[in-house]
Amino acid sequence: MGKYRIPLPLSENQLTGPIPSYAVWISKLIYIGLQNNSLNGTIPSWLFVQHSLSSIDLSNNMLQGPIPRSVYELQNLTYLRLSSNNFSGVIKLDKLLKLKYLYYLDLSYNGLSLNINNSVNSTLRYFKTIGLASCNLSEFSNFLRVLHDLIALDLSNNKIHGEVPKWIFDVGKNTWDSLDLSHNFLTSLECLPLKNLEYINLHSNLFRGPLPLPPISTIVFSISNNKLTGEIPQLICSLIALEVLDLSNNNLSGVIPQCLGNISINLSVLSLWMNSFRGIFTAAFTKGNMLRSLNLNDNQIEGDVPLLNCRHLEELQVLVLRFNRFHGHMDTSKTKSKHHFRMRIIDISCNEFTGLLPTNYIKQFGAMMNVDEHEMKLKYMGQTYHQDSVLVVIKGYEIKLSRILTVFSIIDFSRNNFHGDIPKSIGGLNSLRGLNLSQEWSPLMQ
Fold it and tell me: Distance between CA atoms of 125 and 413, rounded to whole angstroms?
């Protein structure tokens, strides 16, 4: 068996315990995939002396200890993913980057520190993915200048300080498709010249100033949890490929552009909560749209909510309008008796709605009623680059759901002026985990 070059794919099983400390029966491994298990202990010495190895994936386990130094000698290595473990110690990044075939490197979310030599190495230009989230970085490194073909860059959860270097704005030399600078301590962001960018995650920084506009190719744009000010520019509606727009928890103000309703037929997440937006929300979503989550919580938006009568919001699963100034009747006369919404979470609490309780909507929350065995499995809303999250109030406590289970449902119509009967159909909402129709006020909600 030893004369063959063989793979060892054992990912996404229920493997536990340490990786065996010896493997004499394996001599020419080309690939080892142990990701998404529950392995613990340290990396055995035999693993990283397999010079035939081209791909290693140990991500999403509970492995610990240092990374063996022999990893620097794997000259055939193309893919190295060690993210989401408990590894510790120092990694000499410049040595890893000298592996001439390596194009994918992810060391994110461990306890690692990086030793970086800032001399630029021109052999790095064909790198596709680098993940260095939570690696105790304090600055941008010069080696990023020459990564002309870089597709994904994750520098989140670090301590990078100061301004984004000017050389990142060099359009002629950088054609990156992905940039993630989230969870840093960067203090200014002027513009984004990465013209082929598709995935941008800048959340949880200390960015100030106006909202920067990403390239037209952007698919995911998250810049939440910063200190941005000013209005949303109309030019943002030129992002025709956009699927996720998350500007939440900033100091943005002004009227929300009407064009956001038809910015992209593929727009699935529009999150604008915890800002200072005002005026009437007039965005109208076009037929065939894929909007899954709309969150306007904690702004100063007023007027009625015509979008609730829109038959084109067939994919909407999360609607949060809490703490605004919406008012008027929620007219249910236009809803069709056979139409079923996919709604999972609807929170219109702390507004000024009046009239009859909108029972027709509740009766048509088909997704809350029909929960089959397949859906009961742990399945979350979201995608690879973005996990849907929401703040909900349960028994007066505000709770953040960083990931939303598809079987988790909440209806909150509290702190309005509705009247009328509570429909018996509520008893058939099998996935309902929270129902609030009260006038009760809790100081925890202020």
Answer: 54
* DSSP state for residue 265 in the 8-state scheme: T
List Cα–Cα distances, 306 to 283, 285, 310, in angstroms.
Answer: 9, 11, 7
pLDDT one-digit tens code per residue, 64-80: 999 999 999 999 999 99
Q: Which residue has the tokens 């979350």?
A: 380
CATH number of the domain where residue 388 is located: 3.80.10
Q: Which helix (H) or strand (E) holds 95?
A: helix 93-96
Q: What is the CA radius of gyration of the chain?
A: 25
Could you read off the pLDDT of 335-380 as tens digits, one per residue?
554 556 678 888 999 999 888 887 777 777 767 766 554 554 556 6
Give the Cα separation of 433 and 48 in Å (integer). 48
| Rounded distance between C-alpha atoms, residue 213 and residue 269, angstroms | 17
Residue 375 lies in a domain: yes
Residue 120 CA to residue 381 CA, distance in Å, equals 41
62 lies in a domain?
Answer: no
Write the CA distances from 55 to 33, 45, 51, 80, integer angstroms: 8, 17, 11, 6
Q: Residue 125 has which token pair?
A: 């230009």
